[in-house]
Amino acid sequence: MRYRKLAMVLAIVIGFGVIGSLAGPRWTPQPLESTIVPETRDVAIGSDAVTDPVGSYAVEQETFDVQLDGATVAATLTYPVDAPGERPAMLFMHGAGTAGNLNFADQAQALASAGVYVLVPAKRMDTYTATSRSYPAMAEDYLVSWRILRDWPGVDPTQVGIYGESEGAWIAPIAAVKEPGVGYLILVSAPVVPPREQFAFAADSYLRNVGVPDALLRAIPRGLGADMPGGGFDYADFDATPWQRQVRQPVLMVYGTDDTSMPTIQGPLTLIEDISHAGNESYTVRYFDGANHGIRVDDELAPGFVGVLARWTQGLPETAMASPRIAGAQPEQAFRAAPVDHPRWYASGDMLVYTLLAAFVLVLIGPLVWGTSRLVRRPTRKMPPPLARYSAATVMATVAVLVIFVAYIAYVASLALNYRTDDLVVHGGWLLLHVLGILAAAVGVRSVASAWNAWRTLGMRAMSAGALVIWGSTHVGAAGLLLIAAYWGVFPTVF
Known about the structure:
CATH architecture of the largest domain: 3-Layer(aba) Sandwich
CATH superfamily of the largest domain: Alpha/Beta hydrolase fold, catalytic domain
Number of domains: 2
Order of helices and strands: HEEEHEHEHEHHHEHEEEHEHHHH
Number of strands: 11
CATH class of the largest domain: Alpha Beta
Strand content: 5-15%
C-alpha cells in the first residue's frame, strides 16, 4: 500500500511537470547576430562647428501653466541669461510613470548654461493610467508645449527639438512626424521595439543577471504575453515603426552600457534602418560606459553626457552627420527583443483570474459550510477522524505552496530591480518550492487514500452530505491550485 501511494505521488508530480512544460508558451529568445562596434571610446561630437560649452552662461527659470485640451499642466523653462542671438531649444518628454515639471533638472541647468533653452512640461496624468494610454495623443499634448517654446523670445524657431527618454522615445518620433517643424530628436534609452517586446526583453535580462533557474524564465511569456484581466494595456503592442519610417530630422541616440532593460544594439540598428526609409541618414549614436537607464553613474549624470547634448544640438546641421557617427564604450546585447508568444485561452486574460478565484472559492467552501453549520446549531456530522485532519493539511500545504511562490517571485523581482544576487535564496528557494509542491501532492494523495478506505469500510455512513461537500470542495479546489502552481513551474519540468 505504501509503495502504491508513492507511485501515485510520483505519477501526479510527473503529470504536473508535464503540464508545466506543455500548458503554456516556452521561452526561447534568439541570440542577436548583429552588433555595433563604436569607432572610438571618445564620445565627443566632431565637426568644425563652433559651440558654447557647458557653463558659459548664467541660468534662470520660469514656471507657467500650459493649457491642453481638457487639462492644465505646469511647465518650467530653464534658459541662459544674455546669450547672444537666437538660440536652439529643447522640449523634454518623460519616461514611464508620473513625472513633473521639475524633472531633468540637471540636464536643464547644464544645457541652459551652454546657451540652450529647455522646457520641461509635467506629464498629463488624467489620460495616463497603468492600463490605458495613447502615445499619439500624448504627442499632441507635448506639441502644445513645443509650440510655446518655438515662439519664445530668444529661441531660434528652426532649431527647436525634442528630447525623449525611455517611454518618451516612443512619443518623440510621432511628434516629429505630426509637426515637421521639429528641428531634431534626441532619444535617450530608447526601446524602439514595441512595449511588450521591451518588457519581456528587460525581464529576461534582469532574471538572467540574478541567475534564476532556466525553468523560471518560462514565466516571462506566460505573464507578459497574457491579455490583461478586465482588458486594457492595448498600448503594450504599440509599434512605432510606421512613425519612425517617416522621421526626417537629425537623430541623436544615447544609451548607458549598464542599462540591461533596453536593446542597446538592436534599438539603434532598427531605428537607423527605419529612418532610412525616409531617406534620412542623419544619425549619431553614443554609449556611456557604466551608465544606467538614466545615463547616470553613481547617481550623477555620466561624464560628458550633457556636453554631448549641448554640442550636438548647437552644432546642427553640421553635427548631424559628423564623424564619429557611433562612439563610446562597447555595448553588449546577447538576445534579440522579439514578439512574445501568447498563452492559450485558459491561461490568459479574465480566465487567468477566474481559474484562480474558482480554486480559492472551492477551498473556502469547506470552512464556510462548517462555520455556517455551527452558527445555525446544526453541526455537520464529523468526518472519520483522519479525514478532517488530512483535508485541512491538504488545504494548508497547497495554499502554502502558492504563498511561498508569490513571496519567492517578489524577492527575485526585488533582486533583479536592484541589480543584486542571492544564489542561496534564488536556487535554494526554487528547490524548496519543488519540495513543497511534491509534499502538497503527497498530502493530497494520503487524504484521498484515507477517504477511499473510509468509504470502503463505512459506505455512505462515512460522511454526511455536508461533510461530503466540505471534503469534495476542499480537494477539488486544492487540485485546481496545484494545477495553477504547475503552470507557473512549481513542479519539476519534464522538458
